What does this fold into?
Amino acid sequence: MNGVILLAHGSRDPQWALPFEQIRAAVESRKPDCAVALAYLEHTMPDFAGAVDMLVERGAATFIKVVPLFLGPGGHVRGDVPQLIQRASAKHPRIKFDVKPFIGDARPVLDAIADYAAS
It folds into this structure.
């Protein structure tokens, strides 16, 4: 089984995470053969290492795709994400981590936002 981690910033406000839970549920329904987890950089659990451990416990043994849910390529995307991957790879050397570009770099995401704003 493979895994998917949806990586978001995090917030002290528990309501903030609700849209990300909806995204997780939608990905899970589209990929029933994958274990899907949310991970957060700050203030919200699980953190990235905890999400990786959770997916490994659920059977992700060879491949985890990481999708940074960030609109821009700030310090978290450029600095924190590579460090998290490096640590996770050291702890789980048999797992290949595939880090997708941040979602703000995906034309369909930008088009969907523009369509929403223009409607």
Q: What stands out?
A: The chain has four helices and four strands. The longest helix spans residues 75-91. The CA atoms of residues 11 and 36 lie 20 Å apart. The chain has a mean pLDDT of 95.
